[in-house]
Amino acid sequence: MAPEHSHSHSHTPSASRLGAAVALTLGYALVEAFGGWWSGSLALLADAGHMATDGAALGLAALAAWAARRPASTRHSFGLGRAEMFAALANSLVMLAVVVVLAYEALARLEQPAPVHGGAVSAVAAVGLAINLLVARLLSGGAHNMNTRGALLHVLGDILGSVAALTAGLVIVVTGWTPIDPLLSLFISALLVVSSLRLLRDAVHALMEGVPPELSLPEVGGAMAAVPGVVSVHDLHIWMLSGERVSLSAHVVVEDLAQWEDTLRALQQLAAERFRIEHVTLQPEPQRRVLRRIDASR
After folding, report:
1. Which of 6, 133, 159, 286 is within CB 3.0–4.6 Å of 257 for a Cys-Cys bond?
2. How much is the pTM?
3. Which CATH number characterizes residue 277's domain?
C-alpha cells in the first residue's frame, strides 16, 4: 500500500492551489459584477458571468483533485483517479458552450452596437488581468495533469478576455470605435475552441483507456523484449489510471522461469525509469510451454 500513500501526497499541492484559484476567481467575479452594475456596462456584467462559470469549473477541478487523493477501496480498487479525467471532459464541454454564447453575443453586438464605458471597462479589466495571471501562476506551479489543464484552459479564457476588454476599452476611449469589442471577442472565441477541442479529445482518449499520447506501444514492447531473459512480449496493454498514473499489463515469455525474479525486477525498473510507468502487472510464461502450445496447434 506504500505506493498508494505516496501517490496521494503528489496531488496535495494541486488541490490546494485549485482551492485558492476558486476563491480568487469567484471573489473577483463579484467585484466585476458590482463594477458592471455601477458603470452600466453590459460587457463587464457578461464577463462577471463568464468568471463565475469559470470559478465553478475550477471548483469541479478542485473536487476531482480531492477525489483522486482518496485511497483505493474494495469498490474502487484503482482509487478515484479517473475523476480528474471526467472533470477535464466536463470543463472542455462547458468551455465550448461558453464560447458559443460569447460568439453569439459578439455577433449580436456587431449588428446592434451598444454604448460602452471604455474607461470603466479598462480599469476593471486591468485588475481582472492581474488576478487571472496570479491564478494561472498558482495552477501552473501544480501538477501538469489533464485536470489542471482543464482548469488552466478556463483561466486562459479569462486572461484573453481581460486582455480583449482592456484593449477594447482603451481603443474606445481613444477612438470611440465600439465594434473593436465584439471583433476581439470573436478572435478569442476561435482560439478557445482549438484548446477546448484538444482537451476534449485527450479526455475522451483517456476515458476510452487509450495508450497515453507520450508513449508508443510498439516501442515499450520492443524495449521489454530486449531485456535479458525475455524471449517475447504479448497481450501488452497500457492505459491511464489518472492524469498522472499509468498502468501496464503484459504476458512475458521467458527463457528460464527460475530467473523470473531477476527478469521481473529488470522489467519493472525499465518501465519506471524509461517510460515512467509505476503500476506494472506481468504474467510470466516459460518458453517450453509456449513452444508446446504452438506444436499442438499445428
Report:
1. 286
2. 0.71
3. 3.30.70.1350
Cβ-based neighbour number of residue 116 at 10 Å: 24
Q: Say if residue 170 is in the same domain as residue 194.
A: yes
What residue has cell string 487523493?
Answer: 69
Q: Which domain holds residue 200?
A: 2-207
Cβ-in-10-Å burial (0-12, 13-18, 19+) of 23 comes to: middle
Enumerate residues 6+ apart whose C-beta is below 8 A from 193: 96, 99
Ranges of residues in the chain with a pLDDT under 70 are 1-15, 36, 39-47, 114-116, 141-145, 243, 289-298
Residue 29 and residue 51: Cα distance in Å, rounded?
6
Q: Does 212 fall in a domain?
A: no
Amino acid identity at 215: L
Looking at the fold, whether 116 and 202 belong to one and the same domain comes out as yes
d(CA 90, CA 57): 8
**pLDDT at 224 (0 to 100):** 95
Shared domain for 197 and 223, answered yes or no, is no
Element (H, E) at 223: helix 217-225
pLDDT of residue 40: 59
| Cell numbers at 1, concatenated | 500500500
Select from 11, 52, 57 the least CA-distant residue to 33: 52
Tell me if residue 280 falls in helix, strand or coil: strand
**Does residue 226 lie in a domain region?**
yes
Q: Which residues of 119-152 are buried (b: 16+ CB within 10 A; e: fewer)?
A: ebbbbbbeebbebbeebbebbeebbebbbbbbbb
3 state SS of 113:
coil
* DSSP-assigned beta bridge partners for residue 251: 234, 283
